[in-house]
Amino acid sequence: MKFGQVSNPQEIDFTLPPTSPDTLKLLKKNKNKEAFAIYVGCAKWNKSDLKGFYPKGTKDELPYYSSQFNSIELNATFYNAPSKEQVETWKKKTPTDFKFFPKIPQSISHYSRLLNTDEKVKEFTDNIALFEEKLGMIFLQMHDNYKPKDMDRLREFLSKFPKGLPLAVEVRNEEWFSKAETATAFYKLLEEFDITNVLVDTAGRRDLLHMHLTTPSAFIRYVGANDPSDYSRLDDWVMVIKQWREAGLQKLYFFIHQNIELESPLLASYFIKKLNKELKLDLHIPGSDKLF
């Protein structure tokens, strides 16, 4: 993931901003409505990217990956919309409690820019729905140059999106967050349609770390900088998540990226150990059955 990458991570202030008061109000409204659930994963399961994570001789990576993690941020669907057969294959290879978080194809978000996409959306969602209980949340990531002037187009897209499928949205252009009134309008739009607001923690774009949730679910895309600070940044996230859970957070979706992905499982293991300790959980620690 090159977005937000910097050559000098040592010069970045990685301090997490304070949580929005509106976030705490929203969480308190939903406190104790559902059991707390956490899903932590990587962005891909390819052996070439996660070199050293898989035992020698592993030929089919997904079954092993899903024995170590309980979820995957499914970026593969951004490049190629999967067929029904592909979805069924992925589903059969994973345990019953595993969740997929597929990204909406770029043919919808980037090339068509949400215009005249009804048929494409229907085909994609019909296929993705076959994950059934293994579908975590679909997410829409807009191009860097998609601006608030097209918020009405986003509204129309969200209004038509199948109501039975959970959706998260990530916008990237600076204009979404440079003015308070624009950001507020965006947050209200997501709340209106019960859409989860994606938070991105990446070195070069600290403005995307708005700490504003629009549902009682937190969808966080964490991008390490292949720097020692990656670990202390995760320490900070554990404490924020602890605060949010106490306030009423129902679900946490936390996906770890790296500019060089091979370190992602190491960061994930560290993060899960910290979560287990601070939140008194018993999540499986990836790689705990071997050294990698």
UniProtKB/TrEMBL annotation:
Pfam short name (any one): DUF72
Gene3D superfamilies: Protein of unknown function UPF0759 (3.20.20.410)
Membrane-spanning parts: none
Record-linked InterPro entries: DUF72 (IPR002763), UPF0759_sf (IPR036520)
Name of this protein: DUF72 domain-containing protein
Organism: Sphingobacterium anhuiense
